[in-house]
Write a structure and sequence with these properties.
Layout: H1 23-39, E1 43-44, E2 50-52, H2 53-59, H3 65-70, E3 73-75, E4 81-84, H4 89-98, E5 108-117, E6 129-138, H5 144-160, E7 164-170, H6 174-188, H7 197-205, H8 216-221, H9 234-249, E8 255-256, E9 268-276, E10 287-291, H10 295-298, E11 306-312, H11 313-322, E12 335-339, H12 342-357, E13 362-364, H13 371-381, E14 385-389, H14 391-396, E15 398-403, E16 409-413, H15 417-431
Parallel strand pairs: 1-5, 7-8, 12-13, 12-14
Antiparallel strand pairs: 2-4, 3-4, 5-6, 6-11, 7-9, 9-10, 10-11, 14-15, 15-16
Helix pairs in contact: 1-5
The structure holds adenosine monophosphate.
Length: 462
Amino acid sequence: MSKDPTAPPQLLRGMKDILPLDQPYWWWLFDTLRRLATDFSFERIETPILESTSLFTRSVGETTDIVQKEMYSFPDKNGESVALRPEGTTGVVRAYIEHGMLNQPQPVKLWYFGPFFRHDRPQSGRYRQFWQFGFEVFGAPQPVMECQLILMARALFSTLGLETSLQLNSLGDPTVREQYIKAFQAWFKTRKSELSEDQRLQLQRNPLRLLDSHDPHLHTLLDGAPQILDYLDEPSKQHFAAVVEYLDELDIPFVLNPRLVRGLDYYRRTVWEFWPTDDESGQASLGGGGRYDTLVEELGGRPTPAVGFAGGVDRLLLKLKERQIQPPRAEPPQLYVAQLGEPARKKMLRLFEDLRRAGLRVAESMTKDGLKQQLEVAGKLGAHYTLIIGQKELMDDTVLIRDMENGMQEVVAYGKAVVEMEKRLAKAKANGTKPMPGLVKPERFDPRQVADSTDESTADDA
Ligand code: AMP
């Protein structure tokens, strides 16, 4: 398709902007996750978006859809094959090994929040750049860890007001999987004619993926297929039984779903997903997790059992909107500053900064001139006092304080305005009539901000 070079630029297919109107949802989710991470002793990690392609082919698996069809992979300027990360666990495992976290007291619990890339067919809830958060636990073979991760995800969904159903399965250890795959392929011997060309290829290359296919014909056909749970060896069976016991103990309902396989090769034993309650096929899955006890070793680290969970931010937020669930409203400003004319604006800018530094929530419309207009904004924002500097205040070196509730006005010296406002807001708080002063604004979250590391460039990069 030829593009008109003079046409206004447009988003690439499958990409989206996250506009200011959406930000309250993002803050809500991020703040909730951060609180949960602290409660459950997870520390934040952010790994680069760009990694070596081979990292993902080794971990996610050569024959998976993600690696074969969806990964954005290309040679960089040095000819090295690099990839935009299609998922989060692999980068965290690389970092865990590379930074010697194996030598720290285990378990090491890490969480992340960032963008991921898959060149998939875009549709509702499926993007080419999408966001995930994830929790990874290293050095914990115990089944209780699966349950802790499930508990956290449930706590998240319940804080957001979303109902989900927990789908649970075990894939056993690699030997179990090998045996099962053989039995599965053998079962299809007499049924190959019922498969499409693509499905036949998949039966050879990545047979387990047939299990979570959304093709209704295949779905019915698979009703009679062997189930992996019947193939579990004793240790996998015991591990799975323990996971189920924990869930029962916590009264967490789940659906035993023998078709849940997940799309990545590194999973061992327990796997799970959270589906919205109105989704019966998993197409709108909100997140999934699993054990990956051999991945650290496969990527060159010491054998380290591990388990993790990743959730899809975009899908979660879509669900919230679909259900008309609103994020909590931000606290209104306590103060608003208004000015008349350029010299007053200069003075007001300084006062604004002094009030802000004192920890008061203060709003402004520095580009406006008319007082009426500014008072309207103050009213809309719900500020309790408006501080005004007009011609007279400018000459007298004063500030006019207007109580927005009753319209009463009082003049104070410019230099005393901050102390005066602190006093008034503290008094109002004590009387329970005005919000407390000094509430710190929610910490600004910059998703692009990565862990503090100074990179040493190599000659190769020059
Ligand atoms: P996965 O890594 O495939 O298990 O994905 C975990 C979660 O990320 C899924 O349950 C989705 O919520 C979300 N997700 C995965 N792929 C996409 C995509 N292309 N667009 C939006 N969300 C996605």
